[in-house]
Amino acid sequence: MSPLEMVLVTLAGVAAGTINTVVGSGTLITFPTLLAFGVPPVTANVSNTVGLVPGSMSGVVGYRRELAGQRGRVLRLGAASLLGGVVGALLLLWLPSSAFDAIVPALILLGVLLVIFGPRIQSAVAARAEARGGIPDHGVWWVWPAVAGAGVYGGYFGAAQGVLLMAILGIGVADSMQRHTATKNVLALIVNAVAALVFIAVADVDWVVAGLIALGSVVGGQVGATVGRRLAPNLLRAVIAVVGVTALVALLV
To answer: Out of 45, 54, 57, 122, which could bridge 214 as a Cys pair, Cβ 3.0 to 4.6 Å?
Structure first.
């Protein structure tokens, strides 16, 4: 890579880290950038995944205030993400890429719709749960398997994983959007780290590319935490919906 290309890859990492912290789908920026600079697709995918993990960690740190009091919830749901991420990573090794081609756009669209209509659905879920004693801190009964399912998706593919997680948490867990964002960042980090470990073990990583993206995404994680924390709930939902639709269009086109 030329010095200019290295700078641009780093800047793409900053943008991806920012978007991943607020919503997800930062890969939609870094992956095409690497392809444009002549990095082979497989190497680009592997190196990008590895490089974005430090940015995910940065986002978690940036949202540490919103994680206060969520330890039990994060541990419980984190186990679901870990299990799902392992299964998804194994499926990535065993199944052809066409296996999820049909379902991925549908999942992203479902996630976007659930985020948009989340408040109404959450009210109905809360009313039903109230009759049974209220919503537990870790969410209604289906949140754990849903997070595990999102982990399978994230370990296999990953783009817009954050959209699905925000939909699940927003509907099934009684808390604020900002605290859901903090939880989402931890769950996505777990899944992404699993996928990165698998890639490191079985594929060739371009460590220069991964390092540049890591450097940029760490900065972006802090930027995303600063920006995301200032977004009102409805505006945050709008941002999530826009990113989700963008991911959907990118996949279909």
So the answer is: 54
